[in-house]
Amino acid sequence: MRISELNIYPVKSLRGIALEQAELGVRGLAFDRHWMIVDDVGRFVTQRQLPAMAQVSVHLTAERLELHHTDAATLRIELARDDQPSLTAYVWEDRCRALDEGAEAARWLTDVLGGVKGSGLRLVRFPLEEQRAVDARYQRGEGAHTAFADGFPFLITNDASLAAVNATLAQKGLDPVPMSRFRPNVVVAEAEAFAENGWDALHGAGGRFRLGLRKACQRCKITTVDQLSGEIRVPGEPLRTLVEMSAHFGKPGGYFGQNATLLAGAGETLRVGESLTASD
């Protein structure tokens, strides 16, 4: 097997960045979900509430985070800032300390996206020293933590599994969907469809790194959002098809990909095209 894609999403639920290489860290690929948009009480906001978030593109330079939208001037956030006030942010049931990127960022986001349920929007950063633990129920004695991802530092998907989903969509007379609908970090090629559901770990050549696959990823309505336009072109799809295909899990919902943690290899670099092996 090999790595066919590497992606990061510096701002949770905004457009992702495809990379040729990425540094491995305990809480994910470098800068992945390092920022998040929250409402006035600190509750996380995603494409579940605002599909138009997909229209905001993200760029990283050596000095700054840049957000781009066709209706606004570029928003630039310095990476080296350390003077932000802190606030409490909420991701699902987790609460953690976050750094507020300020009034200019809040105005930019609210102007571009329009707020949610009467609330304005703010941009927050995950503090370097903060740790948000991964649910211990899904670990096997190892400790793990993440930044603003839903629950795990890595999401791994399989090109062959997407091909199987698209074949089922074609049988319904529906267009195929790209892998971007599933917002993965690491995409694997040259494996059997849905083989990832039986893997315990993925290993780099020579044991450089090891990723532990710990929980099948239950998908949500974000899979129905076109990640370029921010539009829902076919209501309910491909989520409805995933639910039908995931019946073998024995519980409701649609599943695609595996949530993972880093077992070994912090500081190593992943590269598109490099080989992988799986253990079960």
State the main characteristics.
280 residues; mainly beta; M1 Pyruvate Kinase, Domain 3; eight-stranded mixed β-sheet; four-stranded antiparallel β-sheet; 20 strands; 11% helix; catalytic activity
What oligomeric arrangement do these chains adopt? single chain
What is the CATH third-level topology name of the largest domain?
M1 Pyruvate Kinase, Domain 3
In spatial order, strands of the major sheet run 2-1-15-14-18-17-16-20
Give the biggest beta sheet: 8 strands, mixed
Strand content: 35-45%
* N- and C-termini, Cα separation: 15 Å
Chain-averaged pLDDT: 96
> What is the share of helical residues?
10-25%
Q: What is the CATH architecture annotation of the largest domain?
A: Beta Barrel
User: What is the number of strand segments?
Assistant: 20
One letter per element, helices H and strands E, the order comes to EEEEEEEEEEHEEEEHEEEHEEE
The coarse silhouette is: globular
At the first level of CATH, the class of the largest domain is Mainly Beta
Rg, Å, rounded: 18 Å
Name the structural class.
Answer: mainly beta
Low-confidence stretches: none
The structural domain count equals: 2
CATH superfamily of the largest domain: PK beta-barrel domain-like
Give a description of the structure.
Helices cover 11% and strands 35% of the residues. By secondary structure, the chain is mainly beta. The chain folds into 2 domains: 2-29 and 134-279, M1 Pyruvate Kinase, Domain 3; 35-130, no CATH class. The strands form 5 sheets. An 8-stranded mixed beta sheet has the order 2-1-15-14-18-17-16-20. Strands 5-11-10-9 form a 4-stranded antiparallel beta sheet. A 3-stranded antiparallel beta sheet has the order 4-3-19, with no helix packed on it. A hairpin with a 2-residue loop joins strand 7 and strand 8 (72-78). The longest helix is centred in the middle third of the chain and has 13 residues, at 159-171. The protein is globular. The two termini are 15 Å apart. The mean pLDDT is 96. GO terms for molecular function: catalytic activity; molybdenum ion binding; pyridoxal phosphate binding. Pfam families: MOSC, MOSC_N. This is MOSC domain-containing protein. Residues 131-279 form the MOSC domain.
